[in-house]
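Same chain as my last thread, 177 residues:
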Amino acid sequence: MLCFCHNLIKRNDIVPIMPQPGDLIEIFRGTYQHWALYVGEGYIVHLCPPTEAAGAGAYSLVSVLCDTAVVTKESLEEIVGKDRFLVNNLLDDKHKPRSVYNILRDARSLLGLEMPYCILRGNCEHFVTELRYGKGESRQVYYALGVGVRAVAIGMKALNAASNISCVKSKQKRILL
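reply #2:
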């Protein structure tokens, strides 16, 4: 087995966890995370839009425009490239993981399949959480939507405040006339 210690991220000085079959792998691509399922012997299965590859850099951001992706099995080291990754079974406290046997069986059965890809409803994180937990979820989407909703709310408050100031000035002008 290959060692990826140089790419594993430490959290709070905890020794990084080496991936085990069925683990979710979070790969940090800068502005977003790519997700994969570790299947053993240095390999991952992931939902791969045409633009998602190691070293793709800013080009990988174009994956949001893709409407299909292919389930592929590739070397973890190759896909991670110079990026960082960590084992992140993020929903283990919320959902009971399926058996490793069932996770790997289903992952293998999907290899080569072209699937619909939607950044909001069917991205790589949805794909791997569906395999591990039987339920597809994406924290990135929840986070992005939360940030978007907050930004809209702040914008609405600013517009409302500006409108109120404008109304007060308008009323003051009318009183002076």
